[in-house]
C-alpha cells in the first residue's frame, strides 16, 4: 500500500441522550432481564425521539458532526480536505449519496466522494478505499462510518411490530465516527499497515438481511429485517480467527507482537466466543458496543477513537469486523507513530 | 495511477424484451408523442412484467449475467477473479450488499468486494476504485454498473401513481454492464488513463432525489422520486464541459487528440445541449440511452461495450457521466491498445 496512510485524528457523534434498557422496557413493556442477557448492550442512542416518533438526526447530521470534530482536532479547514469516503448500510436516500450531503454541510467542494454500501465491514472497506485514494492529488481525506436504524424502527406499541423489531430496539443504535487520513507522517498518528476485506463462505445463506421498500412495495412489504442468530454465533468467531490470521500474514506480523485488539462489535455472547476463539491472553481489548449500541459502521471508528488515547509509538493493534450478512471478514493492522 | 489498468472485455445484460413507447402508452393510457419529445428514449427493458406486476429479474440476476458474459469473453474462470466492484443506486437490499450475491452466483469466493452507492456517476467511481485496487494481490477484477427501477414502479392504473412515476416509466430502464479489468496489458484491450470523480456545486439543491422507505415510513411515505428538470437541463451541459476540461488536463491530452466521446446519457434534449456545449466536431459520439433506456449505472458499460468494437490501437476516448443528484461530475480517459 503506497503511499503510507496515517490516521491523524478521529471524531464521533451520537444523537441525544443515551437510552438504557430500563427506559426501553418502560416504553414498550418488554422484558429487560432476558433481553439484556441476550444482547449485552447496556445503552444506545437513537436518532428518533422514542416518545413522539420525531426523527431528531439524519445520517447527514451525524456524519457531518463526527467529521467536524475530526477536522477540528487535526486543525483542518474545509479547503484542506481532498476526498470523503463514507461506509454505511442506511443512507438518508438512495440518491444523492449521503456522503455528498455531508461534504456540502462541511463546506467542502470540488472533491472526490465515495459511499460504500455495507454492513459493519463497510467501515474498514472505507478505510481501505481511503488508503488507496492517497496520491499526489489526494493528500488528506475524511473517512466516515455511520448508521441510523430509525427508518426501520416501528414505534407504535399498539401493533405487533415492536415484537418484530424488538432486536433492533435493544441491540442497535445510531451514531457516526470519522477519521482524518493523511499520507504525511504526523507524530502521534496511527499508521494503517494493511486492510483485509474478503467475501467468504460461498453458497452460505445470509446471516442478516435488511431490506428497503420502494413505492411499489408499500402494499405488501416483506419482513424488513431478518437475522439468523444461531448461524451468527457459530460462524463469526471462526471468521474472526481467519481474519486475524490472514491480516497478520499480509502484514508480516506475529500475533505476539500485537498489543491491542479491536474485536468485532456484535451483540450478545458472541464477543466472548470471539475472544476465546482468538485465544488472546496478553492483548488489551478495546470495545464500545455495550455503551454505544450496535451502531454498525460507526463502531470501528469509536474503537479507533479509544485506541488513539492509548496507543504509543511502535505499539501494534488489529481491528476486526465480521459482517454476518453475506459473511464478510474485514481487518486492519495499525501501528502507533 | 499505478499499476496500469486495462479493460480486457465487457459484458451487458437487459431483462426481457424491449418495451417501446407505444407499448407503455397502450398499457397506461398516456400520451406518447409529448413524452417522446421530452424523454428522447425509444425503448427500454424492465425487470418486471408490466402486465402482471411480477418481478422477473433482480439486480443480482442482471449483474451476474453481465459479469458472466465479460468473464467468458476474457476466457476467465471464477478462481481467476481477485475482486468485484459494483456501482448502483438500487441495491436488491440494504444488507447484504448485492455485489456479494453476484460473487456468490458466479462461484467467486474469498475475494475483495465493494459496492458504491451512487446515481449514474457510480459506474465511473467503480472503475476508479477498481483501478486503485489493482496491486500485487489483485491482478484481475470485475467492475459492474447496474440499476433496476422496479421497486419504485407503481403499476396500478387505478391510482394516480402512474402519473407521479410516469417519468420513471418513460425515461428509465433496467440493465447491467460489466468489464474485466486487469493490470496486464492485453492486445485489443482499452487502457484506463485517468478517472475524475468530483462533487461540485456546493450548496446547490439536489437536482434528483430517490428515496427509500423503511418499516417506519410505510404509513406516511414521502414522494419516492423528485427531479428538477430545469436545473438538470441548465447545469448538466456546463458540468460536462468542466469534466471534459478537467479530465483532459489530468491526463495531459489535447481535446483535438480525442477520437471518441461517450457523453452523459441523460434523457430528453439534454444530450444535444451537451454536444453543443462541448463543441466537438470531429469526434465520434457513442450513446445508447435511446435504445437501452436510462439504466443508470449500467449505461457507461453499455457505451464501453460499443467502444470496444470500434476503438483502434492508440485511439483515444473520453467518457463523461454527470449525476444531477448532488451534482457529481465524473469522467475517464481511455486509450486503445
TrEMBL record, chains A, B:
Please name the GO terms of the biological process aspect recorded for this protein, alphabetically. fatty acid biosynthetic process; secondary metabolite biosynthetic process
- Tell me which domain of life the UniProt entry assigns to the organism this sequence originates from: Bacteria
Location of the Beta-ketoacyl-[acyl-carrier-protein] synthase III N-terminal domain:
116-184
**An MF annotation (GO) of this entry:** 3-oxoacyl-[acyl-carrier-protein] synthase activity
Please name the Pfam families in this protein's record. ACP_syn_III (PF08545)
* Protein name according to UniProt: 3-oxoacyl-ACP synthase
Q: Which organism is it from?
A: Kibdelosporangium aridum
Amino acid at each position: 500500500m503506497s503511499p503510507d496512510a496515517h490516521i491523524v485524528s478521529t471524531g464521533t457523534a451520537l444523537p441525544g441522550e443515551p437510552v438504557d434498557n430500563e427506559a426501553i422496557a418502560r416504553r414498550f413493556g418488554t422484558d429487560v432481564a432476558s433481553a439484556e442477557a441476550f444482547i449485552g448492550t447496556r445503552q444506545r442512542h437513537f436518532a428518533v425521539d422514542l416518545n413522539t416518533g420525531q426523527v431528531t438526526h439524519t445520517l447527514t447530521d451525524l456524519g457531518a458532526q463526527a467529521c467536524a470534530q475530526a477536522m477540528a482536532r487535526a486543525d483542518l479547514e474545509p479547503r484542506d480536505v481532498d476526498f470523503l469516503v463514507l461506509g454505511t448500510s442506511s443512507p438518508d436516500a438512495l440518491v444523492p449519496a449521503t456522503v455528498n450531503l455531508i461534504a456540502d454541510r462541511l463546506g467542502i467542494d470540488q472533491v472526490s466522494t465515495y459511499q460504500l454500501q455495507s454492513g459493519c465491514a463497510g467501515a474498514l472497506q472505507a478505510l481501505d478505499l481511503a488508503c488507496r485514494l492517497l496520491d499526489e492529488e489526494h493528500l488528506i481525506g475524511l473517512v466516515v462510518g455511520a448508521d441510523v436504524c430509525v427508518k426501520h424502527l416501528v414505534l407504535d406499541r399498539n401493533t405487533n411490530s415492536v415484537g418484530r423489531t424488538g432486536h433492533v430496539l435493544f441491540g442497535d443504535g445510531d451514531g457516526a465516527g470519522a477519521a482524518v487520513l493523511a499520507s504525511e507522517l504526523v507524530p502521534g498518528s496511527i499508521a494503517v499497515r494493511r486492510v483485509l476485506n474478503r467475501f467468504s463462505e460461498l453458497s452460505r445463506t445470509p446471516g442478516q438481511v435488511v431490506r428497503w421498500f420502494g413505492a411499489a412495495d408499500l402494499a405488501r412489504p416483506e419482513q424488513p429485517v431478518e437475522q439468523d442468530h444461531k448461524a451468527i454465533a457459530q460462524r463469526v468467531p471462526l471468521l474472526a480467527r481467519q481474519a486475524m490470521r490472514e491480516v497478520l500474514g499480509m502484514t508480516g506480523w506475529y500475533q505476539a507482537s500485537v498489543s491491542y485488539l479491536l474485536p468485532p462489535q456484535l451483540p450478545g455472547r458472541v464477543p466472548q466466543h470471539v475472544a476465546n476463539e482468538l485465544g488472546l491472553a496478553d492483548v488489551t481489548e478495546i470495545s464500545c458496543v455495550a455503551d454505544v449500541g450496535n451502531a454498525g459502521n460507526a463502531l470501528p471508528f469509536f474503537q479507533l477513537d479509544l485506541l488513539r488515547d492509548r496507543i504509543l509509538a511502535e505499539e501494534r493493534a488489529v481491528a476486526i469486523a465480521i459482517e454476518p450478512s453475506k459473511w464478510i471478514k474485514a481487518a486492519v493492522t495499525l501501528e502507533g507513530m
